[in-house]
Design a protein that fits this description.
The structure holds three protein chains of three kinds. By secondary structure, chain B is an all-alpha fold. Chain B is 73% helix and 0% strand. In chain B, helix 2 crosses helix 3, helix 4 runs antiparallel to helix 7 and helix 5 packs antiparallel against helix 6. Chain B is elongated. Chain C is globular, with a radius of gyration of 23 Å. Classes of the chains: A alpha+beta, B mainly alpha, C mainly alpha.
Chain lengths: 354, 229, 545
């Protein structure tokens, strides 16, 4: 119902660029807040000026003691509170939507480090401080930091998320208007914080295809496979039979039982932790202190490449992002509606070493 | 009112150490008491920040925490806890002695509290030294050889919390020892009697608070690994 | 609109003994336990820190006239950090409580001093020690982490004077804790006979609520700074993700104090406004009980909303929802106050002396500042506005347009009481107008900049933002110059101004019933209170014989 109203907003002369439907929805809320603020401000300004003028000191006119009015107090507490509840609800609703990427969102990885954004595409393309996406395609950015807290922001889509070292963060957007829009880092991160900026180019499909085809060799998953062999992962994590380590085939986004009784989902965050802090969680039936610790040897970008490879070992499509909440450090429930074959269901019910 | 009290000579404001901005000695005592309790509340919040950090990291790494507590000597910790509780007992006795104008007892109990408190600090120093020898002090020298491998990664944070919380507690104890020394000196100078013993009572409150903080620290740091689910 | 202050014949005669002339010499000032002298010591030191912080502000605005800036980015980063650290911890937090609160609170409740005068002096010394650390940091090149000291940048990556800055703030924090402690005990235990809680001036209620926040919140930021300091020196890893530490934990501990801290800054200002409006409308504040209760409600609720600074850090959406809801809740008592102040003028007898002009400015600017806070409590718009100039504009509206304006209102209102002299009313009105104009010109464009996406803490910015930045700097020049004017005429008045008499405004309140300046012990005899607060009637035109 509100979807078309954003077009009107985008044409307002004093509106900021709106490049997606969700940005339009947020702007609608923004203008509502502006309207409420304007009304409140005018009410107070007029009230003060009017009373000050009308009741200015006049000879022969004494002030009249007025104690108060419970009715007024309640009224002017309750009515603003109800208006605020509307703001709260509307804002929370849009926030939920901003945290829930659509099923068809394409996943692109962004690593922030002092003082640049390094972008990695699933097809192996890489960029710095630039992003290219086609119009109409939903994009989920998985964000990682190599050093301090950054914050990835694209005002035209009204999206922003902090990029905190030690965890994955993400945001999503679906651009509806071709154009050249700004990217900013918006969490102070050191000397060149204000130079950690770039552009996202939203292209029509033809231009996008032309751009994408000029890529370097190998998809992200291919690059990951190279790393997998180079770093000796393949000696233990054998492809088709169980070695000394949990098998990685069909692991991605499936439940894993740990040796302390917990069950977690093998999402991006779990895989990242398993590579960089292997002793943090031990799969049931396996031993601690077997897998080497790759902290410091693999960069965030390398980890992303490895995860892309592990995803490609899953029978689910590796490139489509998963429905549901963004990666967290905790266990996730697989989204409802995702078809599970009997084989994967069986895998889900038993420890993941078949 | 009973005649006996009405006949007793009323102490002067100077004997009661009433300051100029207070109307009565009672008002001053009330204000001092509320002031000390308010200060202790700020201390609760101060330690509370560290307890919050402890709670967060324990929730994140429960097994690592349990493993780390194996390094804590429960016997020594328990003995120290007993020592501190005894010191609170002698402190309470000291306040009572001051209330009853018993100078000798007051000094005796203050010395007792000092003795127990100092014992606690000395034992703590030995404990810290033992950690130092085992390379368990967080920082560049941290090297937890005897800790199970899967917990070594996060061990430094846990040991840091141990030193931070017990260290902060020890600092408060040292301040307490200083305050007790001040009380001893003043007791020798006949400063405290049944009309005026406020400083003894206020410092007593502070001492009890420091004791209570330890009573929380001991199980949280020493005993968690020794509890079997 | 003639001025209504009056001088008495006695005042023109020889000066009686008061707290200022009872003793002379630096020892009598540096070892004083008189709350009024300590308040004047604070006035001097806080003004000094304000000028330091304000100079940084002018340099920042100067730098931002150019998209590529005037100074190297390393310098700019230190400028905005030091501006924030000095202004927040060494000006805003102590300001009204340490100056007007210290001076007036005992008198307003009929007491001869605060409960713990020596602790009061200790508070000032701790403030000075903290300030020396801050000045040391400035002299040695500053700290560049932002006043929020976020880890791991502050703990691991910054090569500026983080430790010294943290220590300075730590010490100043204890100054704040002790002031709050003193106020709470004083209000509980030292009210004169007949001064019940509901007869206390709203200024006292405001400072009591502020004291609660000071004692409960400040120790937590003290711990946060200790942890940052230890991490910086010993690299123990508490906020280092490589060893399992959590940078977001720092933010939780930091904001647990720093959000209530903003209410430490604004509540006393609200107390001042209640007093000023009552006096210049000649009426008891409308809804006195509700204004008092709202101060307490704000103090309590302020501890429950800190997460609204962290909506986009990756904390759980449900956590965010709780904080968003509670943040709206805490806005209600503030709105209630604004309505009550406006209604106080209903059927009043309003005059327009400079304190009242500042009070009007406060109501308008605080309303705008508070409303823009709602944009940030709303989760979806916060995503778009977090980290932009919208946030900068919002907090400057409430801090400068609110708190600094209230501070000026209070200083003007009580200057005759504190010094026994009246200042120049035409200069005061001129300065008030210039401050209002300069302030709006500085910060209104910043709301637009934020909406357009310009990030904060940027040493260089894209050229499309330049026009609004230049506009903002123009306003800042006016504002900066105008803020100096009161310093000049207030000091001039202290030396050469006409004697003011006990009660030039014909205000109600125990502080106005004693001489100006007051004696060391305020009251010859402890008063007994028999009437309600704000027992205002019309102004007496004739001089009191």
């Amino acid at each position: 119902m509100w979807a078309n109203s954003y077009r009107f907003l985008a044409d307002l002369p004093f509106a900021a660029t709106i490049a997606s439907k969700e940005a339009g929805e947020i702007d609608l809320l923004w203008w509502f807040l502006c309207a409420v603020s304007l009304v409140m401000t005018v009410v107070i300004f007029v009230g003060v000026v009017f009373f000050a003028f009308k009741y200015r000191k006049k000879p022969g006119v004494d002030p009249v003691p007025v104690h108060g009015s419970n009715f007024l107090e309640i009224t002017w507490s309750v009515i603003p509170f109800i208006v605020m509840l509307v703001m709260f609800w509307w804002g929370a609703d849009l926030f939920f939507a901003a945290e829930t990427p659509p099923k068809d969102a394409e996943e692109i990885f962004v690593v922030g480090k002092q003082w640049m954004w390094k972008v990695q595409y699933p097809d192996g393309n890489r960029e710095i401080n630039a992003l290219h996406v086609p119009v109409g395609q939903a994009v989920k950015l998985t964000l990682a930091s190599e050093d301090v807290i950054h914050s990835f922001s694209m005002p035209a889509f009204r999206v922003r998320h902090d990029v905190v070292p030690g965890q994955y963060d993400s945001l999503w957007f679906r651009p509806t208007k071709a154009g050249h829009y700004r990217i900013f880092c918006t969490e102070y991160c050191g000397d060149r914080h204000s130079q950690m900026i770039g552009f996202v180019d939203v292209l029509d499909q033809d231009s996008y295809n032309a751009w994408a085809s000029g890529g370097t060799g190998g998809t992200l998953a291919d690059q990951g496979q190279q790393l997998f062999t180079q770093n000796g992962c393949s000696t233990c994590h054998l492809l088709n039979e169980q070695g000394r380590c949990p098998i990685l085939k069909n692991l991605y986004n499936h439940p894993v039982q740990l040796n302390d009784g917990r069950t977690v989902i093998a999402d991006d965050a779990y895989l990242r932790e398993s590579i960089l802090q292997p002793n943090a969680k031990i799969v049931n039936g396996f031993e601690a202190n077997v897998m080497p610790n790759f902290q410091g040897q693999l960069s965030e970008e390398n980890v992303i490449q490895l995860i892309a490879y592990i995803k490609s070992l899953s029978s689910q499509t590796a490139t489509a992002s998963q429905v549901g909440a963004l990666p967290t450090n905790g266990p996730q429930v697989p989204a409802p509606g995702k078809k599970q074959s009997a084989a994967t269901k069986a895998t889900a019910l038993q420890p993941a070493q078949q | 009112m009973p005649d006996a009290i009405a006949e007793a000579p009323h102490p002067t404001d100077e004997e009661l150490h009433v300051k100029h901005h207070f109307a009565t000695a009672d008002q001053q005592m009330d204000a001092d008491t509320l002031g000390m309790w308010t200060f202790l509340i700020t201390e609760v919040l101060f330690f509370g920040g560290m307890f919050a950090a402890y709670a967060v990291y324990r929730e994140m790494y429960p097994l690592a925490f349990a493993a780390t507590s194996e390094f804590m000597n429960v016997k020594i910790g328990a003995a120290n806890t007993a020592v501190l509780i005894c010191s609170s007992l002698t402190m309470a006795m000291a306040v009572r002695a001051a209330q009853l104008s018993r100078k000798k007892d007051l000094i005796k109990y203050l010395y007792g509290t000092l003795a127990f408190g100092s014992t606690f600090l000395i034992v703590k120093a030995f404990e810290y030294h033992a950690k130092y020898v085992e390379h368990l002090i967080p920082g560049p020298t941290f090297h937890p050889d005897n800790l199970a491998p899967q917990f070594q990664h996060n061990a430094q944070i846990l040991f840091f919390l141990y030193f931070c919380m017990t260290g902060m507690h020890a600092v408060h104890m040292i301040v307490g020892v200083g305050l007790l020394t001040f009380l001893v000196i003043n007791s020798y100078r006949n400063q405290y009697n049944s009309n005026y013993y406020t400083p003894v009572e206020m410092i007593g409150l502070y001492w009890h608070f420091v004791d209570i903080v330890w009573i929380f620290l001991f199980p949280l740091l020493y005993l968690i690994g020794h509890w079997h689910w | 609109m003639a001025t209504t202050y009056q001088t008495t014949p006695e005042a023109a005669a020889e000066e009686p003994v008061n707290y200022l002339n009872v003793e002379h010499g630096w020892k009598s000032w540096l070892f004083t336990t008189d709350h009024k002298r300590i308040a004047m010591l604070y006035v001097f030191s806080i003004t000094l820190m304000f000028l330091i912080g304000g100079s940084f502000a002018m340099l920042i605005r100067l730098h931002l006239t150019q998209p590529q800036g005037l100074f190297p980015p390393e310098v700019y980063n230190r400028l905005f950090t030091m501006h924030g650290v000095v202004m927040v911890f060494f000006f805003l937090v102590p300001s009204i409580p340490a100056t007007l609160g210290n001076f007036l609170l005992p008198m307003m409740i009929g007491a001869k001093d605060l409960a713990f005068p020596r602790v009061n002096l200790l508070s000032w010394y701790l403030y000075i020690i903290g300030a020396i650390f801050a000045v040391f940091v400035v002299a040695r090149g500053g700290v560049d982490t932002g006043w929020t000291f976020y880890a791991p940048y502050s703990t691991t990556y910054s090569n500026s004077y983080v430790l010294s800055a943290a220590m300075g703030v730590f010490v100043a924090g204890f100054s704040s804790i002790l002031t709050g402690l003193n106020f709470i005990v004083t209000v509980h235990k030292m009210r004169a006979p007949g001064m019940s809680w509901m007869r206390m001036p709203l200024f006292v209620w405001a400072h009591y609520a502020t004291g609660l926040i000071q004692i409960l919140g400040t120790p937590v930021v003290a711990i946060a700074l200790v942890l940052v300091g230890v991490e910086k020196v010993m690299h123990v890893g508490i906020f280092d993700p490589n060893v399992g530490g959590d940078p977001i934990l720092f933010q939780h501990i930091f904001w647990f104090y720093s959000h209530p801290a903003v209410y430490i800054m604004i509540l006393p200002g609200m107390g001042v406004i209640s007093e000023v409006i009552a006096c210049f409308a000649r009426k008891r504040p409308f809804g006195y009980e509700f204004i008092a209760a709202s101060s307490m409600a704000i103090a309590i609720l302020s501890f429950l909303v800190w997460g609204h600074h962290m909506f986009i850090t990756g904390q759980s959406v449900y956590t965010g929802i709780v904080f968003s809801f509670l943040s709206f809740f805490v806005a209600v008592p503030s709105a209630v106050k604004v309505f009550n102040w406006t209604a106080t003028m209903y059927k009043g007898s309003v005059t327009f002396e400079s304190p009242m002009l500042y009070a009007f400015a406060f109501i308008g600017l605080f309303t705008i500042g508070g409303l823009t806070g709602l944009f940030l409590s709303t989760m979806a718009t916060d995503v778009a506005l977090h980290g932009t100039y919208f946030v900068v504009a919002h907090f400057h509206f409430v801090m400068v347009g609110g708190m600094v304006v209230a501070f000026l209102a209070g200083i003007h209102f009580w200057w005759p009481k504190m010094t026994g002299r009246m200042y120049s009313e035409p200069w005061a009105r001129f300065a008030a107008l210039m401050i209002f104009v300069g302030f709006n010109l500085t910060f209104l464009p910043q709301f637009v900049l934020g909406y357009l996406g310009m990030p904060r803490r940027y040493a260089a910015y894209p050229p499309e933002f330049q026009v609004l930045n230049v506009l903002s700097t123009a306003g800042a020049s006016v504002l900066g110059f105008s803020l100096l004017i009161p310093i000049v005429y207030l000091i001039y008045a202290w030396k050469y101004g006409p004697k003011a008499g006990n009660n030039p405004w014909q205000a109600k309140g125990l502080e106005w019933e004693i001489q100006s300046p007051p004696t060391t012990f305020n009251f010859d005899e402890t008063p007994t209170v028999t009437e309600e607060a704000y027992n205002y009637g019309p102004l007496e035109e004739k001089q009191v014989a």
